[in-house]
Fold each of these.
Amino acid sequence: MSNLFQPTALVGAIALAMGFSVSAQANTDSSVNASLETLVVTASRSEEKIKDVPARISIIEPKILDQSPIAELPHLLMSDASIDMMQYGGYGQAASIFTRGTNSTHTLVLRDGVRLNTGSAGAASLAFIDTTDIKQIEVLKGPASVLYGTDAIGGVVQLISKTPERTSAFVTGEMGEHNTYKAVIGADVAENGFYAQIRGQRLESDGAQVTNLKDPSIKTGNYDQKGFSTKIGLEKKQYAASIDYSENNGQSQYITDNDTYTGVKNATQDFKNEIINIKGRVNINDDISVHARLSQFKDDLEQNESQDAIYNTTKEAELYSKWQFSPSQNILVGVAHKNIESDVLSGSAPYGVDYLKDVASTGYFIQHQYQSDKLHTQAGIRVEDHETFGTHTVGQVAARYRLLPQTSIYSNIGTAFRAPTNNDLYALNWGGNPDLKPEESVSYEIGLDQIITDQFTFSLSIYRNEVDNLITWQNGKNFNVKEATFTGGELNLNWANNDLFWNLGYAYVQPKDKATNTDLNRRPRQSLTLTTGLQTEVYGISTSLSAKSRPQNSSGVSGYANIDINAFWNINPNIKVFTNIQNIGDVEYKTTSASQWGQDIYYINGGRLASAGVTFRY
């Protein structure tokens, strides 16, 4: 890498930024009540205030996403206590997401409605998803199969992209430890309902140690990534249309566990993901609108030390209509078709996998909403016709009732399902089992939200998710667990007063194999997050704590706590300087075993990453 990005330059940039004082959140209203007015779309496919949703939904706001272009999606998701984010190293390393204790394949990841879960592994490649043009991230907890079909047993994470609101241009650069830097350039045009957007970005990092094996022959996980995105659209009262294209590609170095002597060795892989998303809306009259979407998501991975490769393509077509047939009631009816293709090639030991599978599925769904000052309800049903596993019917009923002006309660019950992935079924040397059954779940939840003062809010949720035919891996093969249960609760406290704020989140989950009454492994029982700081429209500073208890049934893996710091200063409307320190204590913790040969070798987290940057905006 260039000598420009040396530690001396980094220290100078951090000193400059910190010398001006700093923050995590700018140009926002710090009051608690303002956050309750935030609009979300994931829960019902329509904009609604977060305080009216009859389910637990949280957001990672624009002010958080703007803190650091370097921050990758797995790290951002750690700020939600209900999510256990397990990453095997730092940048570009594989990551698994466990929402409310459910499997990593039980969280559906979307970008503007486009499904990012792959047909082979079933989970999204979180480490390779760029967040450069993301406005906010919505995290819906609990089942959502009525609106989204398969995979949404534990919840939905949706990335909402930015739509230009004014004509502008910017360039951002951030550099940090481990020779890490990212540059982003972009321009927006917005006039009379027409908008256009373009982004380009490049990131490089030498990476951090991936395992606890301090062997000079085992290199760090370096990462090289670049991307391009563009969006063009027209937004009018009676109609709207847009086309969104994004491409992200690069190379990551990782550790594989097929060396007889050490259990690990170096390997590199090239990745590429591409999204094409075409959307349209027509308002037939003031009460009826018709929405359509065509999309394609490609996720490719090629190994450089062998001929192994994975090519995933998901094509989707969706049409739905919303009818506001009274001031307080609407009904949404739609149909969605998707085709998922996986092409997996691996002729070398120890895998020996080679398959090409194409699976189609069509879902028909209907949802009713009632909305008044005191009562918000949502009820829906979906019939999914799956090419391999036949017809599945899921449903959901939810309601939120405002007992007092400052007090509301909600309850919901819903069912969901997940079809086994192509790897689950056909990758025989990865444990594939063609006799697997689909996973099916039923979930119950109740919750309370209380505004204690204008500055202080309290929320509590209690839930139980019962999953039949849970797919798990044991002794080299996938099989169905007859029933697993996930029982837990979440507590959130939020306070803001003028320029000061703090947000506390606590989550507890007990994941059980009901047949054996033993805990499912790799899940921590308890999680705690805390963010506190000072913010103004010009400057501020914030600190975030993320802590997890020891994962259940995970030998050698312990709990951890790490702290991040963010700061920024808007020198003027055109120049912003900022600094970030992820894991300021450089806490090292094991995530999971890195060797199949009985060695005491574990994947570890990415360690500390201090960085500083500047944005110039026109």
Note: The CA atoms of residues 403 and 506 lie 25 Å apart.
Amino acid sequence: MTSTNTRVASAAFCAATVLVAVTACGGKTSSSGGDAKPPTDGVLVLGLNGDIGQPPDPDIYYANNGVAIIQNVYEGLVKYQDGVDRPDIAPALATSWTVNPQNTVFTFTLRDGVTFHDGTPFDSSAVKASFDRRTAVNGGPAYMVAGVQGVATPDARTAVVTLKEPNSAFLDYLASPFGPKMESPAGLVKNAGADHAQDFLSKHDLGTGPYELSKAETGREYDLTAYPGYWGQKSPFTTVRLTVYNDVSALQLALDNGDVAGAVNALPSSNLKRYQSLSSVTNHFLPTLGAALLTLNPSKDFFRTQPARAAFLQMIDQKKLVSDVMGDTSEVATTMYGKGMIPGGADQQHITYDPTVMAAYAKTLPPNTEMTLGYATGNENAQKMANIVVAQLQTMGIRASAQAYPTATVFSWPNDPTKGPDAFVDGSNGPDGGNPYMWGHVFWDKSGGINYFLCDSPAVDGMLDDAVKTGDIATYVKAGDAYGATGCYMTLAYNKDWVVAQKWLGNVENAHNIGSFELNFNQLTIDAPK
């Protein structure tokens, strides 16, 4: 099948760092920490940890920090179910769908009574226009429609998508936070310009979501306004203001002062015990598709052989490492794929903790053998885990060191893995969606984008390509077992979104989405004082 080009940035792979705040008339919820009051004017202020980095255009945006905009302004045909710990496909602008046995024809029944923010009624013509526009723009997430042969519109409420080749992961492409979103056909024509409306959608929107984009000031602020004609659940917050902060300590101060209503995966885990001890806030640990990973570099002498790689992985005290460093912000991973991707966890990871194997291997190495364990600059959890493992290696007589690498450098390693370290602790990464193909292809296939050191098994690549055509779970499990046998890879932890919220902010867990690492703001509520 045609290989998909995955983005070379950690997506979902770094969870979105959004802080949720609410302002009263004076722009604050309270004047003192621990005494935050709910807003009286319906204004919800979100503090972004850094700018979103790209225009909030659903066919361009392919990062993390702006997913909150995309998710709350635009909608796709399907989505991942909110408030659950599995990547279950749920209705969005399609109320139902059928798939032919060959996984090549997907027929969608469309929701009635939906309008775009420009007043255009949503119908099947919008599906074709939106798919065509994504192809024409050809941004990072364009691969999700690259396999589409055509979109038929037999009537206003029916859209039939035909693929060039079988793809059982196609619904997951559509459910992804980076999947194709529906855009007003009339608005795309009216504002086409010379760039398929890219300039227009950098500061406006053409979506159907509960909010409209009403202001976009790069590096400063993004405002959303509740769309009065929204077909679904109405929000108690009529305005959402996303204020850009470039210093996490400033966001933390706002939370402590009661000016911020909540923090979504934005605080370092070193603050975990402190916030868990505060009676003024609630802590939520919500499931994501992200994970902490450990990858080994077979192009380096230290890990050139499979027994050496296997010995190193057996040295990792996974349960203690994850518990000591990440605490309640994660759970120990037991599977090769992401959390919940294989029903029943049949894709078990077969690594037995036994440090004596590595100790024996260390004795066969030349004196003063050096080894470098890398981590991404700024990832506190990865740095701590790397330091712990390095200390353990040093007790075995290995001159091990931990080294930070900028993200741009990390993603350059597939061009020449010999320039990378011997191994890499990836503190937070994940796929674009919840299908096992979207995990295996990204992390294990040398063409996937996040197989940093190109540890590749052609047999595994073939099994993944076969499995995505049919959706056969047994083949996915077999592929996971085979890649695990290379000794190049270990899923360390299933990461969670740690949400710290003032007590009045309600329905947080049900508003959370496992696929997007984000909250649906129209589902948040204001709880009565207890």
Note: Confidence is low (pLDDT under 50) at residues 1-33.
